[in-house]
Amino acid sequence: MGTAVLEMLPAESLAPPAPGEDRRITRSKRALRGALIALIEERGLDAITVNDLCERADLNRGTFYNHFHDKENLLTALENEVLAEVALLQARMQSVTLGDMLAFRVAGRPVPVLVDLFEYLRGESDFLRAVLGSGGDVRFGPRLREAVCENLVQNILHEKYRTNPTPFVCYYVAFYASAYLGIIARWVENGCPETPEEMARIAMRLLFITPGEPIEL
Amino acid sequence: MGTAVLEMLPAESLAPPAPGEDRRITRSKRALRGALIALIEERGLDAITVNDLCERADLNRGTFYNHFHDKENLLTALENEVLAEVALLQARMQSVTLGDMLAFRVAGRPVPVLVDLFEYLRGESDFLRAVLGSGGDVRFGPRLREAVCENLVQNILHEKYRTNPTPFVCYYVAFYASAYLGIIARWVENGCPETPEEMARIAMRLLFITPGEPIEL
DNA sequence: GCGTTAATGGACACGTTGTTCATTATTGTT
DNA sequence: AACAATAATGAACAACGTGTCCATTAACGC
Q: What's the pTM value of the predicted model, to 2 decimals?
């Protein structure tokens, strides 16, 4: 019967244990999460079998199938969890206008919600590094880009182009959204050497720069 | 014996038939190429089996293994072929300076090598759409970005930062390289509605624009 | 046309999958 | 502390895909 419920909810929550969840379930899922991340880094996603996951998680194979239908199901559960969290931050970003960005920029301070975003991403950096890396999942990058970057760019975009997008504006959005995902991915890939605040500053600087123009350090 | 030679050369050439290649080999490989592209779009890469490929290509399974060790081998062969072609264009791009870009920009003409690049990409758009899409290969996007975008950005980058990159310059490069891959991916995904010349113009415009500044159409 | 070589179809052992089930161990609750 | 509920275990199962081999047939280059 427990399995029936799980089939209804393909998007499981894993990192924060569900409220009244049995400790055994929480432990199993946490172990599978760690195993998946480790194995993605080692061999890449397609080379991983359910056997591998259970062996690494020190779990019986039946236990895996008690909670997930297959490998993909586990992966997307973890992805959905991160994206849900990001969506909350994104809601806060909606209220940040280009003017706000400029104001913070001249004040020499990073936009708070951007700092919070990089803060959260750093907390999930193990997972993100794995899933955005060369052994990761093709579909996650675009989903993360849509969840955070596209909306961010829409806000920055000049008013009148937000409503009716011309072909050029479409590429304009794709350009900056990909750019933002690019620095996030690079940061995570490098092991998050910069603090979230530094990254927020870098992200803001890159918004108001033009290639070829001298970079003041 | 033929197989032994192929094992030595994991990077096969497929689209342009090798000079003295048996027609049967050329035909088989071309069929596998088409089957792979079609199936990636339909089900995604991981859901494809060698059986599927052979059935779609109307080939015996043994024939597949005559030329490729496995599914990945076929895929990377096709990828390497495209990247090798792109590398030739990239060599021509090395000679384009930021000054050249600006000169062409004020003259209202796109840089020729950029047009050629988009021209080539359009010719391979079926493959690119599949492999850059949501059912594609995680590793190809970054490889294409390194092959074409990173070098392009290095050229645009202000002289003195090309030699010793600070952390900021590192993200600067990541930013613009990802941005360029972003518009390429978007264009291909959309079915290449703009001409290569239009795309070259768009790419150049995006280099010299700053967010929030009004866009003249 | 003839020798060479690729394609075919069938076979094989092996590993992975997803499911089922009885048994054991761990929970949350009284 | 004991109990009922339930998760984990280990074993079994058929089905399928894999990669390799081989003898036979068909297509190719010259």
A: 0.90
Helix (H, G, I), strand (E, B) or coil at B31: helix
Euclidean distance between CA atoms B8 and B65, whole angstroms: 15
Question: Which of B149, B168, B205 would you mutate first to test chain A, the one with the most A CBs within 10 A?
Answer: B168
Find the closest chain B residue to A136 by CA distance.
B138
- Distance between CA atoms of residues A170 and B186, nearest Å: 9
Q: For chain A, give the percent of residues with pLDDT over 70.
A: 87
Residues 6+ apart with CB under 8 A from A13: A77, A81
| B contacts of A41 (beta carbons < 8 Å) | none
Q: Annotate chain A with DSSP letters as a single string.
A: -HHHHHHH--S---SS--TT--HHHHHHHHHHHHHHHHHHHHH-GGG--HHHHHHHHT--HHHHHHH-SSHHHHHHHHHHHHHHHHHHHHHHHTT--HHHHHHHHHTT---HHHHHHHHHHHHTHHHHHHHHSTTS-TTHHHHHIIIIIIHHHHHHS-HHHHHS--HHHHHHHHHHHHHHHHHHHHHHHTT--S-HHHHHHHHHHHHT--TTSPPP-
pLDDT at B152: 82
Q: Average pLDDT, whole number, for chain A?
A: 89
The yes-or-no verdict on residue A60 having pLDDT over 50 is yes
Q: Read off the tokens for A52.
A: 């591998």
For residues A43 and A109, give the distance between their C-alpha atoms in angstroms, rounded to a whole number.
41
Q: What pLDDT does A5 receive? A: 35
**Measured between CB atoms, does B191 come within 8 Å of chain A?**
no
For chains A and B, CB pairs below 8 A equal 136
DSSP letter for B164, please.
Answer: S
Strand D contact nucleotides, protein CB < 7 Å: 6-12, 16-22, 27-30
Instruction: Estimate in Å the CA B40 to C1' C9 gap, whole number.
Output: 27
